[in-house]
Amino acid sequence: MGEAKRRRLQSSTSGGIVYHHTSTLRTNLLWMSGVVEVEGQGHEPIHPHIGVIKADVLRRRAMQDFPPLAWFTADVAVPKCLRNMKLCFTDKTTGEVRYEDQVIGNLSDAIALNRVALGFRLSDCPVIVKWSEHPGYGTAEGRELNESALDCGDDPNKWYVSEQAIDLLKVVEFWSSRKIVNPKMQREDWYVKDLHNMVHHCRERKDLYIPPTWLKSHEAKAMAAAMGVPAIDGDQQVPAHLTRTRAGE
User: Fold this and answer.
1) What's the sign of the alpha-carbon dihedral 186, 163, 113, 105?
2) What single string gives the DSSP state of each residue in 126-187?
3) Cβ density class 124-133: b for 16+ within 10 Å, e for less
4) Strand order of the sheet with strand 129-130?
5) Measured between alpha carbons, how far is 53 from 45 in angstroms, rounded to an integer?
6) What are the tens digits of pLDDT across the range 167-176?
């Protein structure tokens, strides 16, 4: 997209905060990468019970009508389409799909673990534009995405997109769900500083490892030792309510 057109699309947005929705299945990978990646990029997360999770973007769209995007929404509540997914089990050797089924609601929540929403100011991120004004919105792939969102009960006119990865140091709000099932998002702005610190540390030391939040501290330390990499102490670097009660509460 040309820069002049990008500025024009950005100027037509209403301003305020937009949210990138993710979960504790991926947050440690986000902090280490330091950015919200466009779709199809980034490392594969490991689920504590299922194993490696491969998010196959090509099962969602052909990636031909418009380039990979990073997705955001004006709603802090978990988008309904993220609670409606297709779960596929594949052969480790051949990659052949052995089983697949639609996963909706509570089961989807259990797979995702605790939900997280990262808030960005549109004024800080001029490359984020309203999806309804992006060239991809009216393409065949775009229309299919919109229709599937409407079928789930979401409003694609509240979506925003970026053709570039977004720097996590621009996060100004952090929301997360205290419960896994039927998640209700709660604002946890005290964690924004910790998030920024982890991103800074990982940029200073490329070999630094941040363990998944669902690992206990001794498990995280053992994993880091086995990998031969330094790790940020999980007891100090994850949202407290996800693993323990904060001191003094």
Assistant:
1) positive
2) TT-EEGGGSGGGGSHHHHHHHHHHHHHT--GGGEEEESS-EEGGGEEEEEEESSSSS--EEE
3) ebebbbbbbb
4) 129-130, 159-162, 70-73, 17-23, 115-121, 171-177, 185-187
5) 6
6) 999 999 999 9
* pLDDT for the residue 213: 79
The values of phi and psi at residue 67, to 5°, are -70, 165
Query: Residue 86 pairs with which residues in a beta bridge?
Result: 102
Judge residue 219's burial from the number of C-beta atoms within 10 Å of its C-beta, 0-12 exposed, 13-18 middle, 19 or more buried: middle
Give the gyration radius of the chain's Cα atoms.
18
Question: pTM of the entire structure?
Answer: 0.78
Q: Which amino acid is at 118?
A: L
Note the pLDDT of residue 96: 62
- If you ran DSSP here, which 8-state letter would residue 245 be given? P
